[in-house]
Design goal:
CATH topology of the largest domain: Porin
Number of strands: 29
Low-confidence stretches: 1-17, 21-28, 281-288, 399-411
Distance between the termini: 54 Å
Shape: globular
Number of helices: 7
CATH architecture of the largest domain: Beta Barrel
CATH class of the largest domain: Mainly Beta
Helix content: 10-25%
Radius of gyration: 32 Å
CATH superfamily of the largest domain: membrane protein fhac: a member of the omp85/tpsb transporter family
Structural class: mainly beta
C-alpha cells in the first residue's frame, strides 16, 4: 500500500517543512522523481505555455530550488500579460515508497489590466513625442506590462543622465480608469544642466596624466554624460594599467551648474612575470590541438606612456592517439612591443618578432623567422577590424626529411604579406557558446622570394582568402521524457589561394591542411587531402593544398553534472590546386564525443568514423582529444 502525504498551499510552513524533508533525503542519497505537474485556476493563458515556461519537468529529478524559481517565473509571466494581482501557490504530493513527487501550481489570476495612455509632466529639454517612444510598443488596449514600464523608466533616465542632467528626479504612478485601464503618470523634475568645469586625477604614480586623459570620452566644458563616463571607465580598464578606476562628480559650491570630475585610479605593477598552460588549435601553420607551456614576462608601462614590452617562450606538446605517443609539434620564442595609440586614435599597434620550430606530425618539418606589425580597431562591441604586415623566412628542413614532392620547398622562401581581417562576434560565451554567431573574413596578399634546387631565384605572388561562419542555436527537446537545453552548432569554412603569375609553388607554411580534432574528425591530424604515400600505399605526410572546404554540424546535449555529450557530422577536404575541386571528393565523417566542462575550458574526447574513405586511408576511424569544443 502506498502511503501519501499531501501539503496544501494554506501555509508556507508546510511547504518549507516538505522542502527540508526532501533535502534531507537527497543528502542521504535518496532522489525523488517528478511524476506529474498540474495547474489549477488557469483560464486566460494556455497550460502548454506555462509548461514550456517552467524549469521543472515530468521525469526530472525533483529540485526544491527549481520549484521556487518556477513560482517566480509564473508570477512574472502573468504580470507581463496584465495580471498585476496574480498569486501563485504550490502544493506537493509525496510518494515516499516510490520516491516520487507530484507538483500542483494553484494560480489566482485576478483582474487583467490593459494599457490606456501615458501622461507626462515637467519635461522641457525633450519633446513629448521623444519620451513616448521610450515606451516601445505599448499601445492602447494591449495587456499592461509592468516590465515595459520599467524599461521605459530606465530609457528616460539614460536620456537625461546623458544630456547633462545628473540630478533629475523621475517619478511614476498609476491611475485606473473603468476598472481595468491603466494610465501611467510620469512626473519629471529636470533640475539644472551640469557641465564639467575641470578634472582631477588621483592616484597616479608612474602613469603620466595624458595617458588617462586620452582615454576619456568626456572633455572639459562638456555637459555631463553618464554613458561617456561609463565608456571612459571601460577604456581605462582595457589598457591594462589599472587595478581600480572610479569616477566621482564633485559639485562646485559657487555654481551648481558646474562640477569637477574626479578620476581615482590604482595602478598595477609595471613589471610582470608569469607562466601559463593552455591549448591552441587551428593556428596558421598547425591544425589540431596542442598543449602550450608558456613562460612570459615584461613591462606594461614603459616610461609611464602605456607602451608595453614582453617576451614569451613557449614549448608545446601534443598526444597522437594513433601512435599513443607524446610529440613536440612546435616551439617558439616571441618578442612583442605594443603602442596602444596609433595616429592619435585608440588603435593599438603591435610589433612582433618570433622564431618558430615546427614539427607537424604528418607533414614536412620547417622553421620560420617572422616579423609582424598589426593594427586593430574595435568598431563596436561585436565588430573588430585588423590589418597586418608581415615578413617571414620559411626554411624547410633538409631534403632527406621530406618527400620528393616537397623538394621545391627546401630552404627557399622569404614571404612578405599584407592581411586585412574582420569579424562579427555575437556569441554569448567564448568557451561554451549556446547562442549567437561568429562570422569572419581574412584577405591576404603575399609576395615570396625563393630559390629552387638549382639556386635560381623564384618570385611568387598570391592572394589568400579565408572566410568562416559559425552559428549556435539553443534547442529545447524532450529526451527520455526530460527537457534538455541542447545546442545546435554549425560551421562553414572555406579558403582559397590564388596565384598571380606563372609560378604554382606556394610555401608550405601558407598552404591549407585539414583532418583531425578541430576540422574533420575521423581523420588523423592533417591527413585529409593531398599527401605522400608510404611503401604500403597509405597516406603518410600531408603536403597541403590551395583550396579548403569545411562543413560541420554538431548537437551538444547536457548529460549530468559537468558532462556534455556530442553527436557530429563533419565534411570537408583540401585540394592541391583550385581547378582540381570535385564535389564528389568531399569526405564525410560522423561520430560522438564526451566533453567535461572545467574552469580552464571544455576538455573533449571524440571518436569519428569515415563514411566514404579512400583506399589510401590507413584507418577507418580515429580518436581525438582536445581542449575547447571543435568549433
Amino acid at each position: 500500500m502506498i502511503t501519501k502525504t499531501e501539503y496544501k498551499p494554506l501555509s508556507s510552513h508546510f511547504f518549507l517543512l516538505t522542502i527540508l524533508l526532501l533535502a534531507a533525503n537527497n543528502l542521504s542519497g535518496q532522489i525523488y522523481e517528478i511524476t506529474e505537474i498540474r495547474f489549477r485556476g488557469v483560464s486566460a493563458i494556455p497550460e502548454e505555455e506555462l509548461i514550456d515556461l517552467i524549469h521543472s519537468g515530468e521525469g526530472d529529478e525533483f529540485d526544491a530550488r527549481l520549484v521556487k524559481l518556477d513560482k517566480i517565473l509564473l508570477t512574472n509571466y502573468y504580470r507581463k500579460n496584465g495580471f498585476l494581482t496574480i498569486l501563485v501557490f504550490d502544493s506537493l504530493t509525496i510518494d515516499n515508497l516510490n520516491r516520487s513527487v507530484a507538483i500542483l501550481y494553484e494560480i489566482v489570476e485576478g483582474q487583467r489590466y490593459y494599457f490606456d495612455r501615458v501622461e507626462l509632466a515637467g519635461n522641457e529639454i525633450f519633446k513629448k513625442s521623444f519620451l513616448l517612444r521610450m515606451f516601445g510598443k505599448m499601445e492602447e488596449g494591449i495587456p499592461f506590462d509592468e516590465g515595459s514600464v520599467k524599461d521605459a523608466r530606465v530609457a528616460i533616465d539614460d536620456a537625461y543622465y546623458n544630456n547633462g542632467k545628473p540630478f533629475v528626479v523621475i517619478s511614476f504612478d498609476y491611475e485606473f480608469e473603468q476598472d481595468s485601464l491603466v494610465v501611467i503618470k510620469c512626473d519629471i523634475q529636470e533640475n539644472q544642466t551640469v557641465r564639467i568645469k575641470d578634472m582631477e586625477y588621483l592616484g597616479l604614480k608612474r602613469v603620466q596624466e595624458f595617458i588617462v586623459r586620452r582615454e576619456l570620452e568626456v572633455k572639459k566644458g562638456d555637459i555631463y554624460s553618464r554613458e561617456k563616463i561609463t565608456k571612459s571607465q571601460k577604456n581605462l580598464y582595457r589598457n591594462g594599467l589599472f587595478e581600480y578606476v572610479r569616477f566621482e562628480l564633485k559639485p562646485t559650491p559657487e555654481d551648481s551648474t558646474q562640477a569637477i570630475l574626479q578620476i581615482q585610479v590604482q595602478e598595477r605593477d609595471a613589471w610582470w612575470l608569469g607562466a601559463s598552460v593552455g591549448f591552441t588549435y587551428e593556428n596558421e601553420e598547425s591544425y589540431g590541438n596542442k598543449l602550450e607551456l608558456s613562460l612570459e614576462g615584461g613591462h606594461r608601462n614603459l616610461w609611464g606612456t602605456g607602451r608595453s614590452l614582453s617576451l614569451y617562450v613557449v614549448p608545446s606538446l601534443a598526444y597522437d592517439v594513433n601512435t599513443r605517443s607524446v610529440i613536440n609539434p612546435d616551439n617558439h620564442i616571441t618578442f612583442v612591443f605594443v603602442e596602444p595609440w596609433i595616429g592619435y586614435t585608440r588603435t593599438p599597434g603591435i610589433f612582433m618578432a618570433s622564431y618558430h620550430l615546427y614539427r607537424p606530425l604528418h607533414s614536412a618539418d620547417f622553421n620560420t623567422l617572422r616579423f609582424n606589425f598589426s593594427v586593430s580597431r574595435e568598431l563596436s562591441d561585436i565588430v573588430d577590424l585588423r590589418g597586418t604586415l608581415e615578413a617571414k623566412l620559411v626554411t624547410t628542413l633538409e631534403e632527406g626529411v621530406i618527400d620528393s614532392t616537397l623538394i621545391d620547398d627546401v630552404s627557399r622562401d622569404q614571404v612578405y604579406s599584407a592581411t586585412v581581417y574582420g569579424k562579427r562576434d555575437t556569441r554569448n560565451n567564448f568557451f561554451n557558446p549556446t547562442d549567437g554567431a561568429l562570422t569572419d573574413l581574412s584577405l591576404g596578399y603575399s609576395y615570396s622570394i625563393g630559390t629552387d634546387i638549382n639556386d635560381v631565384k623564384d618570385f611568387k605572388t598570391y592572394i589568400t582568402l579565408i572566410s568562416g561562419w559559425r552559428r549556435y542555436q539553443p534547442l529545447r527537446w524532450n529526451i527520455f521524457k526530460k527537457r534538455a537545453p541542447i545546442t545546435l552548432a554549425t560551421r562553414l569554412r572555406g579558403g582559397t589561394i590564388i596565384e598571380i603569375g606563372p609560378t604554382k609553388d606556394i610555401p608550405i607554411s601558407d598552404l591549407f591542411f585539414a583532418g583531425g580534432a578541430t576540422t574533420v574528425r575521423g581523420y588523423a591530424e592533417q591527413l585529409l587531402g593531398p599527401a605522400t604515400l608510404d611503401e604500403q600505399g597509405y597516406k603518410d605526410n600531408a603536403i597541403g593544398g590551395k583550396l579548403l572546404f569545411l562543413a560541420n554540424v554538431e548537437l551538444r546535449v547536457p548529460l549530468f553534472w559537468l558532462f556534455v555529450g556530442e553527436i557530429f557530422l563533419d565534411m570537408g577536404n583540401v585540394w592541391r590546386e583550385v581547378k582540381e575541386f570535385d564535389v564528389k571528393e568531399i569526405k564525410a565523417t560522423t561520430g560522438f564525443g564526451i566533453v567535461i566542462l572545467t574552469p580552464v575550458g571544455p576538455i573533449r574526447f571524440d571518436y569519428g568514423i569515415k563514411l566514404n574513405p579512400d583506399s589510401t586511408d590507413r584507418q577507418r576511424d580515429a580518436f581525438h582529444f582536445g581542449l575547447y569544443f571543435a568549433f
